[in-house]
C-alpha cells in the first residue's frame, strides 16, 4: 500500500523524524536549564566485599529531579547528553558533587571507601586528569576515596592518547574500573596494557545466574580471568541469594545490587552507613 501512495508515507516518516528531533531538543534545553537550576542530584549505591560483607565502595548515579516529571533516570537523558556533548558539563557537575560528598564523609571520620563516578567516552579527554587533581585538591580529598568507571567504548579510541590519560589518573592515586564488562567488542589484550584496577561484570550476565548456563559460564570466566590478571572483580545487578552464592563460589571479590541496596538519596545512604553497613566488622 505504501507504493500506491508514496507521498503519504514520506510525509508520515518526516513527521515522525520531526517529533523525535523536537523531543530531543526539548530534553536537551531542559537538561541545560537543569544544570543551572540545580535539578540534578546524585544517588549512591553501596558495593560490598563478598565474605566479609564490608562496604568497600559506592557508585554515584545521577538523577534529574524534573519540575513536572519527577525523578528522571539517567537512561532517559545521559545517552542524549552523550550525543550532543552536554555530557561534559553533566560530568563536571557529577565529579564536583561526588568529591564534595566524599569530602564531607572524610571529614566526618567515616571509614574510607571508594566513591565511583561514571565517566563517558566523550569526557575522557586530556584535561580530565587535571580536573580530577584540581577537584581533589580543592576539597582536600584523599585520592583513595575516588574511582572512575569507564566502559570499553572509551578504550576503543586512540590507544596512545587513552593510555596517557589513564596513566595520569593512576598516578593521582584514583582507581579505574571497567564498567559493563563483557558487553563491548574490543580485544581482551587491552586488559594487560591499561592500568585498570577492577572489572565490573555487566548486569545482563548476573541476571541469568544461576538458571542460564551461558551467563554462568561467562561470569565464571570473567572472574577467573580477572583473578589471573591480578584485577579485582565485582558483579553488578545482584538481586538474589542464589546469584550471591554462585559469585562467592566462583571467587568474585565484590557485589553491588538490589539484594543489598538500591541506589539511595544521600540521607538514606547515610542512614544505611550508620545503621547497617559500617557495623559489620
Ligand atoms: P551503570 O553505570 O552500569 O550503573 C548500573 C545501573 O544498574 C544503575 O542504573 C543502577 O541503578 C542499576 N542497578 C544496580 N543494581 C541493580 C539491580 O540489582 N537490579 C537492577 N535491575 N538494576 C540495578 P541507573 O542509575 O539507572 O544508571 C544507568 C546508567 O546511566 C549507568 O549504568 C551509567 O551508564 C549511566 N549513568 C548514571 N549516572 C551517570 C553519570 O553520572 N555519568 C555518566 N556518564 N553516566 C551515568
Ligand atoms: Mg557504572
Ligand atoms: Mg555498569
Ligand atoms: Mg550495566
Automatic annotation (TrEMBL):
Q: Which residues form the EAL domain?
A: 24-277
Species assigned in the record: Massilia phyllostachyos
Task: From the UniProt record, list the coiled-coil ranges.
Answer: none
- UniProt name for this protein: EAL domain-containing protein
Amino acid at each position: 500500500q505504501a507504493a500506491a501512495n508514496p507521498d503519504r508515507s514520506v510525509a508520515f516518516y518526516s513527521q515522525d523524524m520531526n517529533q523525535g528531533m523536537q523531543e530531543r531538543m526539548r530534553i536537551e534545553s531542559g537538561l541545560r536549564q537543569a544544570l543551572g537550576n540545580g535539578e540534578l542530584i546524585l544517588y549512591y549505591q553501596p558495593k560490598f566485599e563478598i565474605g566479609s560483607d564490608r562496604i568497600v565502595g559506592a557508585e554515584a548515579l545521577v538523577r534529574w529531579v524534573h519540575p513536572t516529571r519527577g525523578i528522571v533516570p539517567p537512561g532517559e537523558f545521559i545517552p542524549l547528553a552523550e550525543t550532543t556533548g552536554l555530557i561534559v558539563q553533566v560530568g563536571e557537575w557529577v565529579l564536583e558533587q561526588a568529591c564534595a560528598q566524599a569530602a564531607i564523609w572524610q571529614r566526618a571520620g567515616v571509614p574510607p571507601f571508594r566513591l565511583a563516578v561514571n565517566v563517558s567516552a566523550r569526557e575522557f579527554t586530556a584535561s580530565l586528569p587535571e580536573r580530577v587533581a584540581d577537584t581533589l585538591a580543592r576539597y582536600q580529598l584523599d585520592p583513595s576515596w575516588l574511582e572512575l568507571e569507564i566502559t570499553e567504548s572509551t578504550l576503543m579510541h586512540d590507544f596512545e592518547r587513552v593510555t596517557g590519560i589513564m596513566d595520569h589518573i593512576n598516578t593521582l592515586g584514583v582507581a579505574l574500573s571497567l564498567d559493563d564488562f563483557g558487553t563491548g567488542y574490543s580485544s581482551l589484550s587491552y586488559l594487560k596494557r591499561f592500568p585498570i584496577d577492577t572489572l565490573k561484570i555487566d548486569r545482563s550476565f548476573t541476571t541469568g545466574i544461576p538458571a542460564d548456563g551461558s551467563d554462568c559460564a561467562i561470569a565464571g570466566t570473567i572472574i577467573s580471568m580477572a583473578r589471573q590478571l591480578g584485577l579485582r572483580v565485582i558483579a553488578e545487578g545482584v538481586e538474589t541469594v542464589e546469584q550471591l552464592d554462585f559469585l562467592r563460589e566462583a571467587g568474585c571479590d565484590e557485589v553491588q545490587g538490589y539484594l543489598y541496596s538500591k541506589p539511595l538519596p544521600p540521607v538514606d545512604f547515610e542512614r544505611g552507613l550508620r545503621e547497617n553497613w559500617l557495623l559489620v566488622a
